[in-house]
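# step 3/5: fold
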Amino acid sequence: MTIAVTGSSGQLGRLVAEGLLDALAPQDVVLVTRTPDKLADLAARGADVRQGDFDAPASLSAAFAGVDRLLLISGDALGARVEQHFVAIGAAADAGVRHIVYTSVGNPSDDNPAIVAPDHRATEEALRASGVAWTFLRNGIYADLQVDTAAGAIATGTLLTNAGNGRIAYVTRADLAAATVAVMTREGHEGKAYDLTGPEALDAEDLAAIYGEVGGTRVEVAHIDDEGWVDAMVEHAGLPAEVAHVLATFGAAQRQGFSAVVTPTIERLTGRAPSSLREFLVAQREALVAA
């Protein structure tokens, strides 16, 4: 069976690509990317690296040729990626791909305020209607993205949050990649949607305690509303206003309970428990304290 990965030069995509090369014969691994030069090391391991761009539909016919199972890693272009995903799904179907695994988001329902939910919901609907077998990997929020937040809280002694008392089960990219490799290399996952989460759901007080423990200091929680959080991120953290508004919607989703789900799915798929946020940040302690 030939397995392909889109976005394979991205952070999650590369981890999945490396896992597939460890699990399969290299000639069975196709890595699709806009920038093949970034994967020269994996090509040297025997992977079939192909140029493919969602914005250049003609490139996808060759990129997906001979592929049996495709991992469609969601794009990052808000406002454009739904059409990009539609193009990729159509090209995969035309190329004879039999099974598409898609990296979605937890609970992409109509009432989820996270700005990414509509894009993922639309893509899931398109896959259901495509006639190709599908699997949805509804990935939790990356623990990896908490490094900057933790460093800021440790440096200032304050964790600003618009998430209220909502909880969130952070999960590492490494654990998501391991679960993805398991799904891609085994049978029986067609027509299933998997919520992939970390081992525990944490609220702001939990996060402040972890940050303080890792940083050897005390971190207090300051609860503010969405508008105040955006203003603080723009003024004090230097985020562009557009980015801050996007990120604020994740806090709103957490506040409303959309990120609190905890599942044993990663352990069931991989045979090992996922890392906790505390474990992940302890491994990053040197970078956190130096920031």
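# step 4/5: annotate
The two ends are 45 Å apart (CA to CA).
# step 5/5: archive (pending)
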